[in-house]
Amino acid sequence: MNAGYGFTHYDYNTGTLDRQRTWGPSVGVTLGYTIFDGFNRKREQKNAEITVQNRELQVQRNKLWLESDFANMWLSYQNNIELTNLERESLHNAKVNYEIAMERYKIGDLSGLELREAQNSLLEAEQRLLTAQYRTKLYEISLLQISGKIGEYLE
């Protein structure tokens, strides 16, 4: 829409009117319709389709990453459970070894240095078991976090 104000003056040499003057405002309306947009609409459609495809690929990539991460965590969790069981057996063997070493030390068949080695072996076995249990619990919590069930665990 447009508006304006102006003055026009016309001099005619022929005809019934010699002069014509116009004073005052003028008002007009302009309407436009684009017939050819230079293929912009088609280009925008293609760009939108490519954007949608990129988002779908990104969702698939994230889904594969999550599944892969979950599978790796699950395998690590299972391995740590087995390691914990092995460390329990190792601790049991270290306790038996320490008890035997203590009995041999009491009867004088074992030196103090060898008894100390049995004690260190027992302490190291206990430490390895605690480390394996700790790692197993960390993997368990990570699995719950990835699966979205960490809230149930905390309650």
From TrEMBL:
Subcellular location: Cell outer membrane
GO cellular component, as recorded: cell outer membrane; efflux pump complex
Keywords, comma-separated and alphabetical: Cell outer membrane, Membrane, Transmembrane, Transmembrane beta strand, Transport
UniProt cross-references to Gene3D superfamilies, sorted A to Z: Outer membrane efflux proteins (OEP) (1.20.1600.10)
Any one GO molecular function term: efflux transmembrane transporter activity
Pfam families noted in UniProt: OEP
Name listed for the protein in its UniProt record: Outer membrane efflux protein BepC
Species of the source: bioreactor metagenome
